[in-house]
Description:
alpha/beta; 146 residues
Amino acid sequence: MGLYDRILVPTDGSEGVERAVQHAVDLAVEHGATLHTVYVVNAGAYAGLPTEAALEGVDDMLRADAEDAVAAVASIADDYDVPCETAIRDGSPSERIVRYAETNDCDLIVTATHGRGGIDRLLLGSTAEKVLRSADVPVLTVRVDD
């Protein structure tokens, strides 16, 4: 076995995250590791919608996006014969990513960062930064630009 046995790569399904996924897959190949991927549905961000029916529609859309996102990561892993476990969780992305890593004994988290700075970072926050500050395992950030 290599240095890493279980590598977690969170996904939000965006184009930029593919760079982090490829890096995680390359590390998994090098270390003979299993890849884990998690998509966190943050439905709380849509709590201000005017009707419950609208929220249901958003939740269905988010879950479909989540399924597509984790399937895309699993497909890339499969191209390299890397075993991949997929998961979808609800809640705060940074908290759920860290909890997933702890619960599944992941040795490394590889996460994309969008390289925002200034007011954007202050207003939007950074999931990658929150994961970096609260995870007990190493976190490798891969900068992706939109």
